[in-house]
Write a structure and sequence with these properties.
The protein is an alpha/beta fold. The strands form three sheets. It has a six-stranded parallel β-sheet with strand order 4-3-5-6-7-13, with helices on both faces. The chain has a six-stranded mixed β-sheet with strand order 9-8-10-11-12-14, sandwiched between helices. Helix 8 packs parallel to helix 10. It is elongated and about 80 Å long. Helices cover about 40% and strands about 20% of the residues. The protein has 13 helices and 14 strands. Helix 5 links the parallel strand 3 and strand 4.
């Protein structure tokens, strides 16, 4: 339905209610209708700048608060767009989707693509989705949030950042805020969070694999220093090993001199380079993977299914993560949900 028709319908309904709240709502919709009229009659064209805030206040005899609320309403619907410290500009004439989503990801890889594609598939026809990447750069992340605060109905974000993410995320109203993958804690308000519990995931996964791990003399966790969630994985690994009396050690990289026949390795490097190093090491020493040494890798991919007759993985359902985020928007619900990891046992163990 075109936006101006929806606004007029809402206004007619509200006019039957003379309460202060209803009057205030009617006034901000009055501004929305006024701007829509200027756009539809071509008095304002695509990319034109809107009249100033003071001009709108004077023209419509409304308060600054009401004017800002009306501009925010139009921004969320995608009809106008705010440019940081410049003003508002016309973006389009009509808006058919009820939601506009700002999807801010840390990076794009096969796992993030699963989140993205499942999110789009679930919300298709109901929202416009713009995708941005911060590449673990805090300043880029902060700028993306600040410059788009009034332009979207929802923000879907993966963080994995060093810096005060809490302060920046709290600038987004809780009802618009959806956090994925990493559980950002102590944020204000009720907001949606669909996350991995890295500490619990590794404990539960290794417990499930105990029968296979029994034949190995030592468990070796390869934990890269730069990995954002390394502390939580290490903590869960140590809890499991102590509870089950497993000899274990933690390295930051694969070092040929420290690797032994009888080791079982757990890896989670970003680009799976540690998996490649361990496979090369096994070939060099003529160790059979899954017999002489073991390998467990984080996050399943098509390559791991066939590499060396199959690599055992601990993997979260990233498709579900994107799907549940979209459902939270469509059903207007607030969800706090752990997306637990599952184990896929293959020949490498």
């Amino acid at each position: 339905m075109p936006q101006h028709s929806k606004s007029k319908t809402e206004k007619k309904t509200i006019e039957t209610d003379s309460s202060p709240a209803s009057t205030h709502r009617m006034k901000y919709l009055q501004l929305a209708e006024y701007i829509n009229h200027l756009i539809e009659t071509d008095e304002l064209k695509i990319n034109d700048r809107l009249p100033s805030l003071n001009q709108l206040i004077e023209k419509l005899k409304i308060s600054k608060e009401t004017a800002l609320k009306g501009l925010s309403y139009l921004s969320e619907k995608g009809i106008i767009e705010a440019e940081y410290r410049k003003g508002y500009y016309v973006k389009k004439k009509t808006q058919y989707q009820p939601y506009r989503v700002c999807l801010i990801l840390d990076k794009m890889n096969v796992l993030r693509d699963r989140v993205y594609q499942s999110f789009l598939e679930t919300i298709k026809g109901q929202a416009e989705v713009d995708v941005y990447f911060h590449h673990h750069n805090f300043k880029v992340f902060e700028k993306l949030v600040d410059e788009n605060l009034s332009n979207y109905t929802h923000f879907v974000i993966t963080t994995f950042l060093q810096g005060n993410t809490t302060e920046v995320l709290n600038r987004i109203p809780p009802q618009k805020r959806i956090i994925l993958d990493y559980e950002e804690k102590i944020l204000s308000g009720d907001y949606t969070c669909i996350y991995q519990d890295y500490k619990t995931d590794i404990q539960e996964s290794l417990t499930e694999l105990l029968p296979q791990l029994d034949k190995y003399s030592r468990l070796v966790l390869i934990a890269p220093l730069e990995a954002f969630h390394a502390k939580e994985v290490i903590a869960g690994f140590e809890v499991f090993c102590k509870k089950n009396h497993k000899k274990h050690i933690i390295y930051n990289t694969v070092d040929e001199k420290r690797c032994k026949n009888g080791d079982a390795y757990i890896t989670f490097s970003r680009y799976d380079q540690d998996d490649v190093s361990i496979i090369k090491l096994a070939r060099k020493n003529q160790w059979k993977l899954g017999k002489d040494i073991g390998l467990i890798s984080y996050n399943d991919t098509a390559v791991k299914e066939i590499l060396e007759n199959g690599i055992t993985v601990i993997s979260t359902d990233f498709n579900k993560m994107g799907e549940e985020a979209a459902k939270a928007i469509l059903t207007k619900t607030t969800v706090t949900m752990r997306d637990p990891a599952t184990v896929i046992l293959r020949n490498s163990l």
